[in-house]
Specification:
Elements (H helix, E strand, L loop, with lengths): L2 H21 L17 H10 L3 H7 L2 E3 L13 H20 L3 H4 L2 E6 L2 E7 H25 L12 H11 L1
Parallel strand pairs: 1-2
Antiparallel strand pairs: 2-3
């Protein structure tokens, strides 16, 4: 299997799980955070919704320089806004992957803040980072939701909440 098709398959598979997590965020908990050093649910879930957008950015540019482009996340206040932002970025990610080639993915991409270089990787590696960061932050969101007693959906099989529900159905 070619790397582009592999990425397309993985992006779609992870999107199905990510949708489930974003869709259960209570609208009245966007400002909640488990610890003062933690992000709020708004910050975390907005970041998750934005992450697929890193794929077309990596494919279509050679760098992101925060000194030239300050990070200004969109302020999202409702679950439906999060899902809309996620779907928009997901569609752009899939389109950019479908329209690129492996030669482009082999090119280098840099993340920097002026002279401070945070990373230089191939564009394919940045696609991988985007997918990995989505999984990582989605798991973080799951912990936040668990602390709020929101039943958690499964990611790679049933969650403890889903198993508990099935056991109750069987009784």
């Amino acid at each position: 299997m070619q790397i582009i098709q592999m990425f397309l398959n993985e992006v779609e598979q992870e999107a199905q799980t990510t949708r489930k997590f974003l869709s259960i965020i209570p609208n009245d908990k966007f400002d909640w955070q488990p610890h003062p050093k933690s992000m709020t649910i708004r910050q975390l879930s907005t970041h998750i919704a934005e992450l697929p957008g890193w794929i077309p950015m990596a494919i279509n540019t050679d760098e992101l320089d925060f000194a030239q482009n300050a990070y200004k996340p969109e302020i999202l206040n409702r679950t439906d806004e999060l899902l809309e932002q996620f779907e928009k970025n997901l569609a752009a990610a899939k389109e950019s992957l479908a329209n690129t080639n492996e030669d482009v993915l082999a090119q280098m991409w840099t993340l920097r803040n002026g002279e401070d270089i945070y990373m230089t990787q191939t564009k394919a590696e940045v696609v991988r980072v985007s997918i990995s960061q989505t999984i990582h932050h989605r798991a973080q969101l799951g912990v936040f939701l668990r602390l709020l007693n929101v039943p958690i959906p499964g990611s790679y099989g049933p969650s403890a909440d889903e198993q508990e529900f099935k056991l109750q159905e069987q009784e």
